[in-house]
């Protein structure tokens, strides 16, 4: 897991078991390591795709200032619990240091270090959403690119069969596409999810040169829960689902209730052929 480090946060805190420690605050230093998946942020350069470490620092300092704990162990535990409430933080390491330990020896400091994750502290998991995405490829190792896309999407709960389809729109003489649909459970909001899809496309070598031109991998967000989204950057449900037999055939495999009524009778026939399950196609290609 990737890491975000917050080092050298110093706060005057009431902590300790000795009588004078109960009367006057003393200086403590906390270092935090946040375990966060930073892959989306590395591609998108969007603040929303990472953990807000400034918020973590503010919350840790507030816990320390309000402390009346006897033990560093207890205070470290409470700092960890607060950090884990911040979105995208999956686990946290806390090192809490007494800078003036009440020991009559030549001692620079004492410290407690702990690591806690969401499960250990019963912090609710991030809310999961159900998204449906369409994947397509007509350049290079088409099966390999579809497999890569499915693997990178994360928690895929259902996949359709793979269909070979004629190219629709774009320049003439494009090669045939392989298309499929996947159902994904995700904690991401729809805008973060579409940024992840674009990152996966880029990792597969997608180049956006010609509108509706050939591509190694195309990933479109069809549905996100039951949400309707209409912005300059994102339209959900996808506005052209009802016109695309190459989307509706695989969609009917995994979520037939999402298909328009009588679509198979209303759309022009042809141009779409089922060729098998993705796993079987991957095995066949070795």
UniProtKB/TrEMBL annotation:
Molecular functions per Gene Ontology: 2-amino-4-hydroxy-6-hydroxymethyldihydropteridine diphosphokinase activity; ATP binding; dihydroneopterin aldolase activity; kinase activity
Pfam families tied to this protein: FolB, HPPK
Keyword ATP-binding attributed: yes
UniProt xrefs under Gene3D superfamilies: 3.30.1130.10, 7,8-Dihydro-6-hydroxymethylpterin-pyrophosphokinase HPPK
GO BP: folic acid biosynthetic process; tetrahydrofolate biosynthetic process
Organism for this UniProt entry: freshwater metagenome
Residue intervals passing through the bilayer: none
This protein's UniProt keywords: ATP-binding, Folate biosynthesis, Kinase, Nucleotide-binding, Transferase
EC number from the UniProt entry: 2.7.6.3
Family matches, as SMART domains: FolB
7,8-dihydro-6-hydroxymethylpterin-pyrophosphokinase domain mapped to chain residues: 211-222
Pathway linked to the protein: Cofactor biosynthesis; tetrahydrofolate biosynthesis; 2-amino-4-hydroxy-6-hydroxymethyl-7,8-dihydropteridine diphosphate from 7,8-dihydroneopterin triphosphate: step 4/4
Keyword Kinase: yes
Family statement: In the N-terminal section; belongs to the DHNA family.
Protein's name in the database: 2-amino-4-hydroxy-6-hydroxymethyldihydropteridine diphosphokinase
